[in-house]
Protein: Methyltransferase type 11 domain-containing protein
Organism: Penicillium antarcticum
Amino acid sequence: MPPEATFKSYTPTQGKTYAQARSTYHPNFYKALLAHHTRTGGQTKTLIDVGCGPGPATRDLAVYFDRAIGFDASPGMIETAKSLGGKSLSGEEIEFCVSGAEELGRGLKGLVVEDGSVDLITAATAAHWFDMPRFWERAGRLLKPGGTVAIWAMNVDGPADDMPNAEAIRAGMDLIRERELEAFFEEGNRLVRGLYVGLPLPWECGGSGEGFEKESFVRREWGTEGGIDTRVAGNEFLLHGERIMGLDGFEVAMGTASPVTRWREANPGLVGTEGDVIRLMRRMIERCLREAGVSEEEMVVKGKGEGVLLMVKKK
C-alpha cells in the first residue's frame, strides 16, 4: 500500500479535533483482548501502541502495564497525545514518540526498546496504513516469546437499522459517497470497510513474518452477521455502542475521515459551505428524518458500528 500521508500531516489542532470526535473502545473489549493475551502466555510488563494518534487506546490499555509507549508517524498527533498525557500501572508517564510502524522506535534518542522486551503490540484502526511486511519484521524482533500482536478496526459506515427512515438515509449516504468521495478512498480505507479481510498476516509476508504462530491466530468480529452481538451486555466493542450524536457532532466526526480530508483539500472553496460533502450528507439526513416525522429538536444520528480483532502470537 502507498504510504499514508493524510493523518501524517495533521497539525496539533487537527489532532485535538480528531481526539474529541472519534469514539473509543469499550472496557469489555479490552478485557476480552487482555484475557486472550494473558491466557496464552502473555505478560503485562511493556505495551507498545502503534499508530496511536492522540493516544486513546494507549491510555486505556496503559493502566494494565508497567510501561506504555505510543508511536505515531504524525508529529501533530503525538503533540496532542503528549498534551493529554496518561500513566501506566506503575505510575510512570506514558511515552509518546514520533515513529512509523515500520521502525517502532528504532533510532530514537532517549528511548530504549530492546529486542525481546515487549509483551503486547497493539494497533487500533491503524494497521491498514502500515507496510505490513516491515511491521511484522520489526514486531517479531521486539516481542517476547508468548507476546501478542493485537490489531483491530472499527467501521461505522451507515445508520443503525432502527434509526427512523434508515433505508433512505443509507441509500442517500451511499449515493453521496459514490459521487463525491469514492475518488478519495485509498486501499487502506477499503481494508477497514472490509474489516481487514486481505490485511497481510505474518505468514503471508515471506521471511519478514517468521516467528509467529499461524495455528493460534484468532479473528473475532463484532456487530456483523455471525459475529459477536454487541447488543448483549458484556459484548460491547465501542464505548457508546452504536454511536449516537447530534447533527453538529456528526459533521465534526465525519470531518476526521481521511477521504473527507482529501476531498476538502481538493475543494477548499466548498469547505464549510452548503456544498461541503459532509454538509450534503447532513441535509440529506435532515430531510429523511423530517419525512419520518422527527422534529428538529429530536434529530440525532445513530451509527451502526462493526469491529474486528486480529490476534497473533509470537513463538
